[in-house]
Amino acid sequence: MFLATHATVGAIIGRAAPNPLLAFLGGFISHFLLDMIPHGDAHLYENYRNHQKVKRALAYVTLDAVVTAYLILGIRSARQFDNGANVTAGIIGGLLPDLIIGVYNLIKVEWLTWFHNLHFFFHNFFIRRWQRDIAFSYGLTMQIVVLALMQTRI
Questions:
Q1: Alpha carbon of 41 to those of 17, 37, 46, 56, 154: distances in Å?
Q2: What is the pLDDT of residues 17-66, one digit of tens each?
Q3: Cα(113)–Cα(13) distance, rounded to whole angstroms?
């Protein structure tokens, strides 16, 4: 999923959560549940790991991160939340799993291998069973539509 999708769901969870800890945990758990939905990007990570089309994968992640940063700034500046700490905690929880995967890929910390495996167990849950991912264009379109709809819920 886009980082922006994870951040938006984290913000929605944070808005509904009674405290920052539950907002963080809800955002963190939602990351894995969202990643289970096939979204057309399994090939990007596989190519990256196999040292193929690395620049394309890095460009995708960079663009996603920039869009997400603007989205978060927009969310935080456009609205005053009574529970701003909860919203922030939900966003952080929603983004943290991919940040951990990024750290793992950069420095190959051995004790994070279990987290990498857990993350991709969920990310590829249905893809492995169906033996294919959806087309990237469908995943991109689906996420843009869902992201736009979710923005109305914040």
A1: 30, 11, 9, 12, 26
A2: 999 999 999 999 999 999 998 887 766 666 566 666 668 777 888 888 89
A3: 28
